[in-house]
Amino acid sequence: MTLSRRTLFRGGVVLGGAVALDRRDPPLALADDSAMVVRQATNIALSHHGGIGRIVFDAVNSLWLLPVAGGSARRLTDDAEDATWPSFFPDGKRVAFQSFRDGAYDICAVDLSSRKVERLTSGPQYDLDPSVSPDGRRLVHVSDTGGRSAVWLLHLDSGCPRSLVGADDDRSYHAPTWHPDGDRIAYVAGEGTIETLHLPSGRRKVLHTAPEGQWFRGTSYGPGGELAYILVDGPRATLYLDGRALTGRDEEPAQLPPAWISRKELAYGADGEIRRRAIDGSGLQAIPFSVALAPPGRPPRIRTPLAPPKESTVRGVAGPALSPDASSVCFRAMGALWLLRLGGKAEKIVDDGYFSSDPAWFPDGRSIVYSSDRSGVPNLWRHTFGGGDERLTDLPNGAMVPSVAPTGDRIAFQDESGATHVLDVASGKTRQIAEATYFPGKPSWSPDGRRVAMAVVEAASERDTAGHNHIMVVDTETGKATTQPVAPHRSIATRGDDGPVWSPDGASMLAVIESLVHRVPVASDGTVTGAPVALSPMVADSVSVSAEGNVLFLSLGKLVLLGDRQYVPPITCTMPDPPPRKVIRAGALWDGRSDGYRNDVDITVEDGVITAVEDARPENTPSVEATTVIPGLIDVHNHWHFRGRQWGSRQGPLWLAYGVTTSRSTGDPAYHMLETREAIHSGARVGPRFLGSGEPLDGSRCYFGFMRCVTSEEQLLRELQRIIGLDYNVVKSYQRLPVALERTLVRHLRRAGIPVVSHYLYPAVATGLNGMEHTGGGNRLGYSRTLSAAGGRTADDTIQLLSESHMWVSSTLLFAHEMFLETPDLIEDRRTKVLFPWWEYERLLEKVREAPDNEINKAWTEGDVDLLLRVHKAGGTVVAGTDAPLDDVGVGIHQNLRAMVKYGFSPREALQTATTNAARCLGASDLGVVRPGARADLLAIDGDPLNDINDAARIERVFVDGRSYRIPELLAPFEDLTTPRGASTPAPRLHGCCRIQKGK
Ligand SMILES: [Zn+2]
Ligand SMILES: [Zn+2]
């Protein structure tokens, strides 16, 4: 797919241009709604009414009214309504649609003349894809009421909904449509089938079956009972009419229902436009439109510090565990394990430079178990106070997040894939008790030592993998697992350290819910028996319990013993003294801004800052001589602790070894992030400058273990306390925060000077978010509003909104595996082979093996870079981000740069996305550039990266704040920690990525 192919189609069609306002329509709603006029929109859904000669379509998540001939569209709904998927009522006076205004999809209707919105459904379920019946008295839609994707019928007179099909099967449903006779509907069932249902008889019939690996979307019955629909095949989508293709490979219709303009003509969204064509395929035309939008909002001006002050009290207390007698707490801080006597001193108990984490107490209080990767992969070790460290497991797939049974003889733990096991301490034998689930929380034992509870994600339905964090209880004898919510439609805050933790009397479990610590009453088998009760109004994280039932949690960096008092960790985070003055002599210097190199340069570094950049002087004695020097690379989007335990101590050296000198997380478990940020800045751990964030804020549902469901303004204010109190460097509003809450979030962050990003472009632009992460990140709609759903094509609205606003866009080219085939050097590179845990290396090889045949990955990569390049050329800000460890740690930044260059960036332009541009989105003018006054973050490279981008990985030495690291030094601690005994092919990479794969 090339630019020319993409634009070719527009040659024969009329584009919007200056279309006169249709005088029959009232004027536009808001005076300032003309700051940006957009003439394309991505993934348009539309509905047509012949009687009034109008189309209603959704663009930028609002409904717009348009004459069939085209023109200036009239806004029907505001940004907060978050309206999509219109369906006309037969009288032409109202339009049904789906609204996310209240944080879950409801079916609503808007009156075209008054623009008053009526809510037809409400509640925590998602009601989607409405279609109004020919008589206007009924409506069919998809709903996930009761945890099942199903087609529902709503009688508008009675307001009474009932499920029609799907409530008793495990298929996902999409796009129901009414037959003109009013007795039948068609819908997509289980992705690959179109069925009909005869309502009076309940008879069902399969109408079409998609070939293997393909799926249907967007059904629409015509006036004569013909059925139009979309068939999706990898990166292609085709509009069909009763088995006959109407569109070719040169366009990509939106995966949404087409509208019938007449018996002979269809209208549909495709490649940013509304198009019409006759049902014989002829007469293709665009229906030009323009929509006028509010001006960009004012984003927070970034004022977050790049490093903590010279001395500060440690707040990064990761995984605190209260001792059985409630006198002491163990936790990870500043790269070590600590024992803190409450009210007394803290002492380091494990500190060998490897990743030691998640201490859990033995019941006698004399020792703890923890995991450490000092032997290559994380395994369990026992530390006896006043004694030594004894190894408990030697498992190739790792052993993490241990929990000791109340009897002290067994330990529950999880392997790298998320499967749960039990170790018999005396014999050393282990036994798997639960299959891998998607990033489960820490296990906790029942007081009788029979069961283990943990947080798991329960999908909302077959159509939505997101849902809530529930309690799973596993019987360790039988392996029987049961899953239940803490309360209907509520979530345990995160799947990590937030419980459930079984209370020692067995009558309750402790869990953090909506950022407050709660007691959840349970029966002896773990069944929830009542509503959760909040125990404290303090913002809470990481709950743990003593043998007497005392409850400990973290609140804004302090340890809180409930009913007792708060304890400030008596540990100081001290910045190290800067390295001595040095002169770096570069044969060639690229300063991050210039078009080319400056030859034979001396760079003087004092106190970590560049003080001079001058022609090489004979009287200077350089401490380092380099062929080429460029600014250190910045990765603006990663998740250090998404698999932080799995990558362990390798992660920091790996980022550095591949030239990343600043790494910004856009979402992590807050206290684990803080711990790593303090450990790196204080020099306790080796790694790039780390700027961090806590859990991204999601809405009524969530999926990743380190994201938070936020369901009310009251809770949002608690989240803001944590965000501001713990000094996040950025906040990610994830997929499901309603527009109104997001406005509140931005308002507060503007005051705090903390940038906020999301996956969305509009209304994020108007709300005042700072950036859009990914080119077409996961979307609550199930499809993107910035990239086409199948082929990843970009329409002009995306380019226009990104380049005319303040927002940056991050690259995160997660699917650029094809680059491994063209330039395989990074696979064989010592840095990859030594610093990747063996299972990650195996999965990397698997990606390489699959790359040649993966057509959709190639289409997406090409499409993603096309978007980035057009934004860049239009004057927007493109920044390099990897999304590692969803992409590969370290290696990913080079894959991003290489793919950019392959599809049109110059090497210099690509490098700027990871240097000067990236620095701008950190609010750091002293990063990403080599000039006096800038921080000395530099790469010494043996090559010519401005001519060959592959050379950017040929790094010999890395400087962060003037501190130097050579590659062999970074590799040394891991050289002998090769693949462990018994290692076999690991389980396939667990899915989970920010990109929508299939509109589920
Ligand atoms: Zn991400
Ligand atoms: Zn994302």
From TrEMBL:
All copies of domain Amidohydrolase-related, residue ranges: 628-963
Gene Ontology molecular function terms on file: hydrolase activity, acting on carbon-nitrogen (but not peptide) bonds
List the keywords (alphabetical). Answer: Hydrolase
Region Disordered, as annotated, extends over 298-317, 479-500
Membrane spanning residue stretches: none
Q: Which InterPro entries match?
A: 6-blade_b-propeller_TolB-like (IPR011042), Amidohydro-rel (IPR006680), Metal-dep_hydrolase_composite (IPR011059), Metal_Hydrolase (IPR032466), TAT_signal (IPR006311), WD40 (IPR011659)
Q: Which family does it belong to?
A: Belongs to the TolB family.
- Protein name listed in UniProt: Amidohydrolase
